[in-house]
Amino acid sequence: MKTIIACALAALAALAWPFDAHAADAPAAARPRIGLVLSGGGARGMAHIGVLKALEALRVPIDCIAGTSMGSVVGGAYALGLTPGELEARIRGLNPYARLHRTERAQIDIGEVLGRNAFDLDRILEIEPSFLEAEEHHHDHDHEHHHDDGHDHHHHHGNGLKHYHDEEMQSVSLKTDKPLNPDKFFPWIQDLVAKDGPNILRCKGILSFKDDPERFVFQGVHMILDGDHQRPWRADEKRDSRIIFIGRNLPEEKIRQGFENCVA
């Protein structure tokens, strides 16, 4: 047990690297040194950004910072020089459709965070109609993709939200107005996520199957897939199939060819 505690303390000391990127003007030698420790907590760990904002507003200097789990992510980025505002912008870029609540001591009505239908495709398409489309070029049976360019970059969508992209992130968007054969599509998508699932962070789509009066909606995370019939196609609605894959090192040609082979 003593060995485990000693190793943990050594790791914490290694993380607690001193820096002065955001320190106040007063020299450290003239005041007590201040260390900040940030805990984990998954998405709740993002609340640390609010802590950093409050400390900066109060002009509390931070000489060293340590953290665990999400706290280490936020603390590490802050130590590298990102401001709380920049950190918040990057977090917003992860899911620009999520509503941001500013609270103190987590005082918020539970109805504001549960039952929000955050992954409902119809809701997202109402906010951003081009959500399932890639952003650069379009052609029949198109497949559109975005590669890294060696640095982080961002762009603005029509809804005014800024999206940040990791330099390794990639997306592949597929679309066809020809009906799909479900007996071909499901074995293909299941085989794809079984083999390349670790690199597929998210996939989602709306599908039109041959002789099927209802549209099929699916989504997936890594190797987990879920989908079901959503509703009948409307008479004034174009029956086409659209899928987007988001991940790292995606086998674009393999995905494109497999999708084309699913046409009825």
What does this structure look like?
- This protein is α+β, with helices and mostly antiparallel strands.
- It is 29% helix and 23% strand.
- The protein has helices at 2-15, 48-57, 70-79, 84-94, 121-127, 182-196, 252-260; strands at 17-18, 35-38, 64-67, 143-145, 153-156, 162-165, 169-176, 200-207, 214-221, 224-232, 241-248.
- Helix 2 runs antiparallel to helix 4 (84-94).
- The model is unreliable at 1-21, 135-153 and 156-162 (pLDDT under 50).
Spatial order of strands in the largest sheet: 4-7-11-8-9-10
Rounded mean pLDDT score: 76
Percent of residues in beta strands:
15-25%
Shape: elongated
Task: Report the structural category.
Answer: alpha+beta
| Number of continuous helical runs | 7
* Strands, total number: 11
Distance between the termini: 63 Å
Task: Describe the sheet with the most strands.
Answer: 6 strands, antiparallel
Helix content: 25-40%
Q: Spans of 5+ residues with little confidence (pLDDT < 50)?
A: 1-21, 135-153, 156-162
Keywords for this entry:
elongated, three-stranded mixed beta sheet, six-stranded antiparallel beta sheet, alpha+beta, 11 strands, disordered N terminus, 264 residues
The gist of it:
The protein is an alpha+beta fold and 264 residues long. The chain has helices at 2-15, 48-57, 70-79, 84-94, 121-127, 182-196, 252-260; strands at residues 17-18, 35-38, 64-67, 143-145, 153-156, 162-165, 169-176, 200-207, 214-221, 224-232, 241-248.
List the helices and strands and how they pair.
Layout (H helix, E strand, L loop, with lengths): L1 H14 L1 E2 L16 E4 L9 H10 L6 E4 L2 H10 L4 H11 L26 H7 L15 E3 L7 E4 L5 E4 L3 E8 L5 H15 L3 E8 L6 E8 L2 E9 L8 E8 L3 H9 L4
Parallel strand pairs: 2-3
Antiparallel strand pairs: 1-3, 4-7, 5-6, 7-11, 8-9, 8-11, 9-10
Helix pairs in contact: 2-4
